[in-house]
Amino acid sequence: HVSEQFSLIGGVRYQYDWVKASYFSIIDPAFAPASPAADGSGFVTPYTPTSLQTGSTRKGSWSGRGGAEFKITPDVMLFGTIARGYLGPTVTFTGLTGLRTAVKPQTVRDITVGIKSQIFDKAVTFNANLFYDKYKNLQTSVFNGVEFVTENAGGFTAKGFEIDAAWRVSPVLSFSGGFTYSDTKFTDYVTACPEDVKAGYACFLAADGVTSLVQARGEPLSGAPKYSATLGADVKLPINDNLQFDTSANIYYRSRVQYAVANAYAYQNGYGKP
Fold first, then answer.
1. Are 119 and 127 spatial neighbours (Cβ–Cβ below 8 Å)?
2. For the chain, which residues make up each domain, given as ranges?
3. Global pTM?
4. 63-273 has which CATH code?
């Protein structure tokens, strides 16, 4: 605490990862490649087993957070933080070919500013914040022309704001609600081109001259709505010293969500539900 109103916060952690991994595959003799299955189904197994492979990687880095808090009044506080997140490296092997990939560490830088408050004799709680996140070396699934592998696919950014509030009308009745705006965009993401590619995106051939790929830069993060909101009411009615009637009603809304990048039809429209 610098003063009664002003405080500094912070913390740092150093992380060192040393990863070793091995992979191999075998086939049950009853299901040898190109031989009919032993169960008489007639199916064959067009698969070549993979010999033992090993891989290792090591890397160390830091993560942490620093910021400040300022109390305008005992019940109203402004805050701001800058943070760095870190996800260590790893070694992966694909299931189809056993391809080994050394995945680089993923980092994210976050800036958040906001307010936390309880006003009107603490009957009303109001919190809000603005945020900006920038990812580098995003660890994700990437199509390499044959199969999906875990690699570093550039990164993406997320920016927006969050609001949540609650109003205790009386000891019996209270209301609550929240709203989030989150604008997410890939900054670099080369992946398999969908059959129904979205307008504004073009497919191109990979180095093998066969596989169709697309640069999905600008696409939103899959499964992440841009807008979401909640609204609720709660009733707590004491019946006697040992019994209380409690009921609540809630409604939730989210905007359109996309489930596959650059795909014109892989999405779900926005909806609300109780």
1. no
2. 63-273
3. 0.81
4. 2.40.170.20
pLDDT values of the chain reduced to their tens digit, one per residue, 274 residues:
899 999 999 999 999 999 998 888 777 666 655 555 555 555 455 566 777 888 899 999 999 999 999 999 999 999 999 999 999 999 988 776 777 788 999 999 999 999 999 999 999 999 999 999 999 998 887 766 667 778 888 889 999 999 999 999 999 999 999 999 999 999 998 888 888 999 999 999 988 888 889 999 999 988 899 999 999 999 999 888 889 999 999 999 999 999 888 999 989 999 999 8
Q: Is 214 exposed, middle or buried (0-12, 13-18, 19+ CB in 10 A)?
A: buried
> How far, rounded to the nearest angstrom, does the alpha carbon of residue 108 sit from its chain's CA centroid?
12
The helix (H) or strand (E) run that includes residue 250 is strand 243-254
- Burial, 128: exposed, middle or buried (Cβ in 10 Å; 0-12, 13-18, 19+)? middle
Tokens of 174: 């209270």
- Token pair belonging to 85: 């997140």
